[in-house]
Specification:
Elements: H1 2-11, H2 46-49, E1 54-63, E2 66-75, E3 79-86, E4 93-97, H3 117-120, E5 124-129, H4 144-170, E6 176-182, H5 184-195, E7 202-206, H6 212-226, H7 241-252, H8 289-300, H9 338-350, H10 368-373, H11 378-381, H12 389-393, E8 397-403, H13 411-425, H14 427-431, E9 434-439, H15 457-466, E10 473-476, E11 511-514, E12 519-523, E13 535-540
Parallel strand pairs: 4-5, 4-6, 6-7, 7-8, 8-9
Antiparallel strand pairs: 1-2, 2-3, 3-5, 10-11, 12-13
Helix pairs in contact: 4-5, 6-9
């Protein structure tokens, strides 16, 4: 994998001129409505969603102080959506926002867009959908239509309906259309590029759950089971995570040449959790043998019980340990790992054909046979086909990003998709429309110890509208929390339950540029690592390694299933 990526850099196709200071989207004049907001209630959506599709309400209100026309409606049979159309500030752009987990709710918050002036000024029409169901239960997965709505249809028809409302309200089409999502929202964005390449001009897809079938079964199932003892209770609790994380940082922090508390190149980290096992007579500041075994299992991931073959492209990375809290490492022995809650509806109602409504995480077998059983719905739910040639041909641009300390979705998945696109499309074509950014210390879609405040909306607009391809992206520390892309019930680290304070002092506030993968960042000698201007583009490095596994062909081109 890395050798192939290195050839890209040597070919010169990703060694781009850095995004110029002040680079911005096109200067588009605001457009006023040509009809009253309430009149949108008469819009006929049946040609888009089918009989029964309707606007249920169209009212003037405000959103973050911006006057908007808020339109809610249903696209048959039961895809709910909401659209916010600015009354005074629309700059001829449309932004559709994805959702995390199994969706089941409408959220109109855009992440990875901190400081985006056009967003803050109300320049976008914005829309979102619940993807055809309510809540996180999975019984809807027994219905053919609702499965399709969640897999791909809801986002597509929401885009079509919103564009029809834009045309009616302003008397013209949007000049540019964008999609921004993280977690399952990242999967939704890539699915749009795969299935409906004309829907959006630019897509930002963070921590994408595009390997849905494996991610929400073998991956999270392993995280839950590996931390469950014979008594059915968790083995490793969150109070041991600071000890573990300190040891990992001590072993691997300087692997990138800078001591900053972050693991920026986890591929070079060979930390062995057995070094923390308690010695004779020791009871504090150490792990039991069982706890160390859990840590090793998390890093290694599920393997076929017979052949030893890996069943995922990669796992949680060194440096992510604090973020395990609330995901698969609870605070107490009476709490269920959130990973078990995640896999339950997927195992029972979504992943297998036919469905297995009585299945539990304890019934999950970690074998290649299980992986093969998941293939039947791979062309429906997964968004891993690297052949995005139609999206590229339409002029579409794609920014992928992933936090290296993600406790939910392994960054190796995103790196595997990037590598598969490189193989399928070639280096020059890929460099013309795709970028991948890996963020040190950043958790799932936001948060973590690393600088997670970033704006990818402005760069994607500059790329689409002015042809200015992004290079370095500035990130910064933030104390704010975000629900962007988080599964329902997510904790402050992107987990799934309220969490106790681990008592870990935050790292110094910092800003830092991140270059497109596989480039690294290098600190100028003798300078302060907390200031972005002290960093330059460093040499290419693996950063994240992927591995051979029997599901590698899931990243080969395929025809999506209806």
């Amino acid at each position: 994998m890395f050798d192939l990526l290195r050839r890209v850099a040597l070919a010169g196709v990703v060694l781009l001129v850095p995004l110029a200071a002040g680079a911005a989207p096109a200067d588009l004049a605001p457009v006023a409505p040509v009809m009253a907001c309430a009149d949108l209630a008469r819009t006929d959506l049946a040609p888009i969603g089918g009989e029964g599709s309707t606007v249920t309400e169209a009212v003037e209100t405000t959103s973050d102080g911006i006057p908007v026309c808020s339109v809610t409606g249903t696209l048959a049979p039961q895809v709910s959506f909401q659209v916010l159309l600015p009354m005074e500030t629309w700059t001829q752009r449309y932004l559709q926002v994805g959702c995390g987990g199994l969706c089941g709710q409408i959220t109109l918050r855009s992440g990875a867009s901190a400081g985006c002036q056009i967003l803050n000024d109300g320049g976008f029409v914005m829309a979102a959908t619940d993807m055809g169901h309510s809540g996180q239960g999975g019984e809807w997965g027994l219905d053919d239509q609702q499965r399709a709505d969640f897999a791909y249809r809801a986002q597509h028809i929401t885009a079509e309906a919103t564009k029809a409302l834009i045309r009616a309200f302003y008397g013209q089409d949007a000049r540019y259309s964008y999609f921004n999502g993280c977690s399952d929202g990242g999967r939704e964005g890539i699915m749009e590029a795969m299935r409906f390449p004309e829907d959006f001009d630019g897509i930002v897809a963070g921590a994408p759950a595009m390997l849905f079938q494996v991610q929400n079964t073998l991956h999270h199932g392993w995280l839950a089971r590996s931390n469950t003892g014979a008594d059915g209770k968790p083995i490793l609790l969150s109070d041991k995570l600071p000890l573990l994380h300190r040891a990992v940082v001590a072993a691997c922090d300087t692997g990138d040449g800078v001591e900053d508390g972050l693991i920026s190149q986890p591929a070079a980290c060979g930390f062995d959790p057995s070094t923390l096992v308690c010695k004779d007579g020791q009871s504090a500041e150490c792990l039991t043998a069982d706890e160390a075994a859990v840590v090793a299992a998390v890093y290694d991931g599920p393997r076929d019980t017979g052949t030893g073959a890996a069943l995922t492209p990669g796992q949680q990375l060194p440096g992510s340990e604090l973020n395990w809290q609330g995901v698969f490492v609870p605070d107490s022995h009476d709490q269920m790992p959130f990973s078990a809650i995640i896999v339950d509806p997927v195992l029972r109602y979504l992943a297998f054909q036919p469905a297995r409504p009585e299945m539990t995480v304890n019934d999950l077998e970690f074998t290649t046979a299980t992986l093969d059983d998941l293939r039947a719905r791979h062309p429906l739910f997964d968004a891993t086909s690297p052949d995005l040639s139609a999206f590229e041909a339409s002029g579409g641009k794609l920014i992928l990003w992933h936090g290296l300390a993600d406790p939910h979705i392994a960054p190796a998945n995103t790196v595997a998709l990037h590598g598969a696109m490189l193989d399928s499309l070639g280096a020059e074509t890929l460099a013309g429309f795709e970028r991948l950014y890996l963020l040190p210390g950043v958790s799932h879609c936001s948060g973590g110890e690393g600088p997670s405040n970033l704006d990818l909306l402005t760069p994607i607009m500059a790329w689409v509208e002015r042809g200015e391809a992004p290079d370095a992206i500035r990130t910064a520390s933030t104390a704010e929390t975000s629900s962007f892309g988080q599964p329902a019930g997510g904790g402050r680290r992107g987990g799934g339950m309220p969490m106790t304070d681990l008592g870990v002092a935050p790292l110094p506030a910092m800003s830092r540029p991140v270059w497109p993968y596989p480039a690294t960042a290098a600190l100028k000698a003798g300078t302060d690592y907390t200031e972005a201007e002290n960093w330059t583009r460093g040499p290419d490095a693996p950063i994240v390694t992927t591995r051979d596994w029997p599901g590698a062909d899931l990243f080969a081109p395929y025809t999506p299933k209806e």
